[in-house]
Amino acid sequence: MGSEEIILEYVLLIVGFVLLIKGADVFVDGSASIAHKLRISSMVIGLTVVAMGTSAPECAVSIAASFRGDNAVAVSNVIGSNIFNLLIVCGVCSVISPLKVKAGTLKKEFPISIVAAIALAVMGYLGMEIGRADGLLLLASFIVFLVWLVMGARKERNAQSDGEEIKSLSTGMCLVYIVVGIAAIVMGGDVVVDSATKIAENFGLSQTLIGLTIVAMGTSLPELVTSIVAAKKGEADMAIGNVIGSCIFNILLVLGVAGAISPMEVLMENVMDAIILIGVSIVTWIFAWTGKRINRVEGAAMVAVYAVYMGYICVR
Fold first, then answer.
1. Which DSSP string corresponds to 258-283?
2. Residue 216 above 70 pLDDT?
3. Whole-prediction pTM value?
4. How far is CA 293 from CA 107, 187, 243, 289, in A?
C-alpha cells in the first residue's frame, strides 16, 4: 500500500470517529427527548431503541456471515461484542463518571442477560451448533422479552421525572435525530473498521488477529460511543440500558435470526468464550450491586480484565 493510500486511510479513520461521536450525540438527544414525550424512562429507551440501533453492526455482520455459511464468525462476533460491551463500555463509562444502576435493573434486565449467556453456552456445548430450532427458540424468547419491556413501559409512563434537563424537540425532529444518529453511527463504525483493518494489514498483522480485535471491537464502537455520550449528558440509565439491551439483543435476536437462516457450528473456543462471558456478566452484576453503582476503581478493573482477555485470545 502506497503512502498516499495510507494517508487516505488515516483521514477516513478520523472521519469515521467524527461520524460516530456526532451521530451518538444526535442519537442520544433524540432518544432522550422522545422518552420524555412518551413519559417512559431512559432505561426503557436504552433497552429498546438505543440498544437496537447500536446493535445494528453486530446484526449486519452476523447475518451476512450466516448467509455466506461462515457461521463461526457470527457466534464469535456476538460473544466478543458482549464481552467488550460489559468490560469496556461499562468500564470506560464508570471511569468517566460512576455508573448508577437502579435496583429494578439489577433484579430484572441484568439477570435476563446472564440467563441468555448461559442458554447460549448450553446450546453450543450440547450440540456444538446452534440449529434452526435453537435459533427459533432464541427469537421467540426475544419477542417475549420485547413484549415484557413494552408492558413494563406502559405501567411506568406516569413515573417519568419532569425535572430532567432534556433537549426540547418536536416529535418529527426526535425521529429525524434518531434516524440520522443511527445512520451516522453505523456508517462511522463501518468506516473505522475498514480503515483500521487496512492500516493493521499494512503493519503486517494477521487476518485472525485483526478479526478477533479490530472487527469485534469495531462492531461495538456504537455501544461504546453512545454510552459514553449518554453518561456525559447525565443519561446513566440510557448508558447502562444500552449495554444490557445490546447484550440481550445480540444473543436472542442476532443469533436467533442467524441460526434460523442457517445452522451455526459452535467451536470449543466459542464455548470457552461463552463461559468467560457468563463470568464477566456475573462479576459486572456484583459490582453494580455494591452501592447500586459501578465506581471508577471497578471500571478501571474491568478495562484491565479486558486487556488480559485480549492477550489470552491473541496467544491461544
1. HHHHS-EE--HHHHHHHHHHHHHHHH
2. no
3. 0.77
4. 14, 32, 14, 7
